[in-house]
Amino acid sequence: MAPRMDNPSLVVPGALQPLLDLSEVIGKVGVPQSTLDFIRLRVASLNGRVYTFPTEPADKRLPQVDSWRTEPSFTDAERAALELAEAVTLQTDAANAPTDEVWASAAKHYTDVQLGALVMHISLVNFWNRVNVATHQDDAVWR
Q1: Closest by Cα among 139, 126, 128 to 3
Q2: What's the CA angle centered on 22, arms 63 and 44, to 5 degrees?
Q3: Which residues contact 84 (CB under 8 A, 6 or more apart)?
Q4: Mean per-residue pLDDT for 32-46?
Q5: Which one of 13, 73, 140, 142 counts the least CB within 10 Å of its CB?
Q6: Mean pLDDT across the stretch 31-59?
Q7: CA 139, CA 48: separation in Å to the nearest integer?
Q8: SS3 string of the chain?
Q9: Is the overall model pTM greater than 0.90, yes or no?
Q10: Is residue 54 predicted with pLDDT exceeding 90?
């Protein structure tokens, strides 16, 4: 399916840099990059955004993210972050927000600053996915 338009972040003047700046800030609070990558992939999958991987991805767990609940290779902290990512992504209204249990599970592994960064990262990934899916952007190639 052909893109409906060029990526809106490139079309709307001044839109791209603030989004990149936010990503940079999120990456500096101590959440491992692998956890942020796992979240990006899981949220993308939930939103119908497709990533293609090189034959040998640097982290062999990347293609397993959708089955994180049953894959033993994910840490408890990664599982808590992925559970939070799913809850935030799938919420449809305030009554359907992440449960206290999901929040408490993540709070066992991350500081308030890191939790804030996780929520912003999940939301930013959802933003990018929705923009890309709505405008029929090409599948993304994993870096």
Answers
A1: 139
A2: 25
A3: 98, 102, 103, 105, 106, 118, 119, 122
A4: 97
A5: 13
A6: 92
A7: 10
A8: CCCCCCCHHHHCCCCHHHHHHHHHHHCCCCCCHHHHHHHHHHHHHHHCCCEECCCCCCCCCHHHHHHCCCCCCCCHHHHHHHHHHHHHHHCCCHHHCCCHHHHHHHHCCCCHHHHHHHHHHHHHHHHHHHHHHHCCCCCEECC
A9: yes
A10: no
Report the distance separating Cα 9 and Cα 135, nearest Å. 11
Amino acid at 4: R
Alpha-carbon span 98 to 106, nearest angstrom: 11
Task: Tell the burial category of 61 from Cβ atoms under 10 Å away from its Cβ (0-12, 13-18, 19+).
Answer: middle
The CA distance from 73 to 113, in Å, is 26
Where is pLDDT greater, at 1 or 63? 63
